[in-house]
Write a structure and sequence with these properties.
The complex is a heterodimer of chains A (200) and B (376). Chain A is α/β, with parallel strands linked by helices and 200 residues long. Chain A has one domain: Thiolase/Chalcone synthase (Peroxisomal Thiolase, Chain A, domain 1), CATH 3.40.47. Chain A is built from seven helices and seven strands; from the N terminus they run βββααβαααβαββα. A seven-stranded mixed β-sheet of chain A has the order 3-2-1-7-6-4-5, sandwiched between helices. In chain A, a hairpin with a 2-residue loop joins strand 6 and strand 7. In chain A, helix 2 packs parallel to helix 5 and helix 6 crosses helix 7. The mean pLDDT of chain A is 94. In chain B, helix 1 packs across helix 10, helix 5 packs across helix 10 and helix 7 crosses helix 8. Chain B is an alpha/beta fold and 376 residues long. In chain B, strands 5-4-6-7-1-8-15-14-9-10-12 form an eleven-stranded mixed β-sheet, sandwiched between helices. In chain B, strands 2-3 form a two-stranded antiparallel sheet. In chain B, strand 14 and strand 15 form a beta hairpin. Chain B is 29% helix and 22% strand. The chains are: A alpha/beta (200), B alpha/beta (376).
């Protein structure tokens, strides 16, 4: 069952369909910091993350903490996907490297680092997987997550960032709790219904 | 989710490697048996201002519409498609890579195939496949891609899978590891007291997985038993201090495989030759009760080939099983880790049935997989 879901798109953050924070048309950099401040999170490591990790971190924070979900660290998996892998940071690293290569940027030139950041924050020791697909693929998520051990929870979804483009849909799948059915059509509906509203 | 699923067995039917050590699996394995390394000092200003000790494939051929990275992949995959007819509808194509066509950032940053999904689809199409998937999970990508394919195959989503692990030696990756101070300027020495860091490399390795081994008999006598995947939840670029999480992955793999420690004839470790990685692995193997088990790291032959490493090292280990031959961990002289390990120092003939492959990577990820020789 899908017990909680977070959508971050058009500089608007929603948890379970309810608006939590709306940005004011500023850059993605500023929006992510403002959202972090608005959510009153105290985690200084946030500031050194790249935008992909920041976006995934915020959504995970809402799905796992603000929702009140309970889980044990070894019994939760993280299955993420996106279209641009880490290309946003790859480009920034390559540009910075024309003068001096930055190790602090280089470590973010892998897409699964966002999963690593989420695992550190929430003490998740279960399995991770990162897939790259052209668009959010509801059947890939529905199928793959259903193949994980049945007693595991799973934080799954889509975390895509490239320049100002941002598109996040993270949800918690839990076989033992009530929620929406975990299948491709529900995922497709939840992903699409909050896409393309307000504030460019 | 479903409690009573009948899972099908998944077998390795064939494989290929394109690397500095050779243009196919046979040539690669014969060089490994002879302790020939594919690493050398490379002075190439387009790669780095400094000379780097690394692995580079000398000649890569392929159609002109392919990038160098894609040619590496297609020249490995085409060896398998020339030997076997695979039904496109029932075959899953999985690309395991960390950086794919990242070299295009220098020459053509708006190229559509800078995106990994587009690269995978392009290679899949060029090789005659319809369904492609990209796994990009740092240095465990290769082992994970085989695990992902196993899940799809055992549940009947597909009958066969072509799993390609590939990464190219590029200035992007070299500069990054240089900036981290992680590169050794000489031949790398996994688990040795004088180890001084990583050598980078490049390769494309391909395994053909199937649920219909009889179709590929008699070569398809290698079974993928089980695997475990975990995260350290500790640091994005440094390994666990205790090795507990890699040990958890190993335990999960052993449990799923229904084998015991005594069944493991050898371990193909990750062994990057950084101080911290090798130390973490030694702790994980000690925690798992594998202090006496024969073990190698193949990084002294190939360097760290990132998304290719798990697949290439799996293939060499499979050939070890098939020929009952333990292959050495070159670069190793004296232990430089805190826990006892039984590092293989010379090629040894010995009856072999089962091995454990492990990998760990940035983002804190760990993978373990158990492979066994069986008659079908």
């Amino acid at each position: 069952m899908i017990t909680h879901y977070c959508r971050i798109v058009n500089k608007t953050v929603r948890l379970d369909g309810v608006e939590i924070f709306r940005g004011e048309g500023k850059s993605l950099d500023e929006f992510l910091i403002n959202a972090y401040n608005a959510l009153k999170i105290d985690y200084p490591k946030f500031y050194k993350m790249d935008n992909l990790s920041k976006a995934g971190f915020l959504a995970a924070e809402l799905v796992l903490k603000n929702s009140g979900a309970s889980y044990s660290g070894e019994k939760i998996s993280v299955v993420l996907s996106n279209a641009h892998a880490s290309l946003d940071t790859d480009v920034k690293y390559a540009n910075a490297s024309k003068t001096v290569p930055s190790p602090a940027l280089f470590v973010y030139t892998l897409p699964n680092i966002v999963a690593g950041e989420i695992c550190i924050r929430h003490k998740i020791k279960g399995e991770n997987a990162f897939f790259v697909s052209e668009t959010f693929d509801p059947s890939l998520m529905a199928t793959y997550v259903s193949m994980l051990p049945a007693d595991n929870l799973c934080l799954a979804g889509w975390v895509d960032v490239m320049g100002e483009h941002h598109d996040v849909f993270l949800y918690l799948q839990d076989n033992a709790s009530p929620g929406k059915p975990h299948n491709a059509s529900t995922l497709n509906e939840l992903y699409n219904k909050e896409y393309g509203t307000v504030n460019g | 989710m479903e409690s009573a699923v009948n899972l099908r067995n998944v077998w390795v039917a064939d494989d290929s490697i394109v690397s500095p050590l050779g243009a196919d699996s046979e040539e690669n394995f014969s060089n490994v048996v002879k302790s020939v390394s594919g690493l050398s000092r490379i002075a190439d200003p387009s790669l780095s201002a400094n000379s780097v000790y690394a692995g580079q494939i000398p000649n890569i051929t392929g159609d002109h519409y392919l990038t160098r990275f894609e040619k590496m992949c297609t020249s490995a995959v085409s060896q398998l498609t020339s030997r076997h007819m695979l039904p496109a509808e029932k075959t899953l194509f999985v690309l395991s890579t960390t950086k794919g066509n990242i070299d295009l950032l220098k020459s053509d940053p708006s190229h559509p195939r800078i995106h990994l999904h587009a690269t995978a689809r392009h290679i899949a199409k060029a090789c005659g496949f319809k369904h492609s998937l990209v796994v990009s999970n740092a240095c465990i990508s290769g082992v994970m891609a085989i695990a992902v394919a196993k899940r799809y195959l055992e549940r009947g989503e597909f009958d066969h899978a072509i799993v390609v692990g590939a990464d190219e030696l590029t200035s992007f990756v070299v500069s990054g590891f240089e900036s981290l101070g992680a590169l050794s300027n000489e031949q790398c020495r996994p688990f040795d007291q004088d180890r001084a860091g990583i050598n980078l490399g490049e390769a494309a390795g391909v395994v053909l997985l199937t649920t219909q081994p009889e179709r590929f008999a008699p070569d398809s006598n290698i079974k993928v038993l089980g695997f475990g995947l975990t995260n350290d939840a500790n640091h994005i670029s440094g390994p666990s201090r205790t090795g507990e999480e890699l040990a958890l992955a190993i335990r999960a793999a052993i449990n799923e495989s229904r084998v015991s420690n005594n069944d493991i004839d050898f371990i193909s470790a990750h062994g990057t030759a950084t101080l911290y990685n090798d130390e973490m692995e030694s702790k994980a193997f000690a925690l798992s009760g594998f202090s006496e088990t024969s073990l190698n790291s193949l990084k002294g032959f190939y360097g760290h080939t990132l998304g290719a490493a798990g697949v290439v090292e799996m293939i060499i280990s499979i050939h070890s099983l098939k020929r009952d031959t333990l292959v050495p961990s070159i670069g190793y002289r004296e232990s430089g880790v805190s826990q006892k390990l039984n590092v293989i120092e010379a090629t040894t003939k010995k009856p072999l049935k089962t091995f454990l492959k492990t990998a760990s990577g940035f983002g804190g990820c760990n993978a373990a997989m158990i492979i066994q020789k069986q008659s079908i």
